[in-house]
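Our consortium's second objective concerns turning raw sequence data into structural hypotheses that experimental partners can test. To show how far this objective has progressed, the report includes one record in full. It was chosen at random from the queue rather than selected for favorable results. The single chain below, 338 residues long, was entered without modification.
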Amino acid sequence: MRIMAPLSLTLACGPYDRTRALADGRVAVAGADLKYLPLDPEEIFFRMVSHGEFDVCEMSLATYLVTREKGAPFIGIPVFPSRLFRHTSVYANRDRIPEADGDDAAAAARALEGKTVGVAEWQLTANVWIRGILADQYGVPVESVKYRTGGLNTPGRHEKVPVALPGSIDISPIPAGATLSGLLAAGEIDAMYTPRAPDSHGQGPVTRLFKDTRAEEERYYADTGIFPIMHVIVIHERVYGQNPWIARELMKAFTKAKQAAYDDLTATAALRLSLPFAREEYERAVAMMGADYWAYGVEPNRHVLETFARYASAQHLVSREFAPGELFAPETGDEFVI
């Protein structure tokens, strides 16, 4: 009997606790010889979209939708290595947007209407979520804000994939050589939506828009049941087309690695994380969100994925709302039983 050599796979992904067991070899991908490249998301996205350098990689959910509609050679699996509540990602210049009285988050959000807001890219997944949440939860229409694009802390950033926006969206680039962080500190823009904190945060008038972001994010989850998905895992078509079995095996391996991260959070003999109350925080998350709060798969995330698809369509990133089942390799949908 001829034994096939393992499939050589290069995986580019962030250095997360939920993927560490894949990176250090504690969890293997059946039938594959995995090489894990721990890179920052921005570098991964650029290299995969521009040059298709990796066999498997982490990708922005928004970029995946945009490129999938354009026919890019990527197929997703419902593994979500990055999720984050995004109320914490809205910043303001307090000389331009005074702090709302007390804990009135709705008043803070409505103060954005008519203001000029910086975004590194329109299509950033975090920014899609922020604009959608502000519209749905606080009544701040996407079109009520003027948008300015450019580098966050370094000049010269552009959209990874071109997007065509209607005239109802007031959007234009900032001057060459300028940064959004610098413009926010100088009061030349009023606020910013950004997954990464600007260098000017905490200096002078630059603060987060919402006073108590954790309380606001917990309220949001209680209202919606949504833990926003930021990134998805994609396989290059050159690999998947010849090896469709790899989609299921990758999903199984990512799920095992995630369980290893959960186990680390519950350790009591010795702390495996450098946080004194890691176990208590884990138990608080489970009490609020359920035991598998970082769930993979389509069905546990259907409402989250449908909400994001609605936002992406409404914000003119894609021409229609993609159904969750359209986005992922069919082999990762149905489960077998014994």
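The partners drew two points from this record. The longest strand covers residues 74-83. The mean pLDDT is 94. Both points have been shared with the crystallography group to help prioritize constructs.
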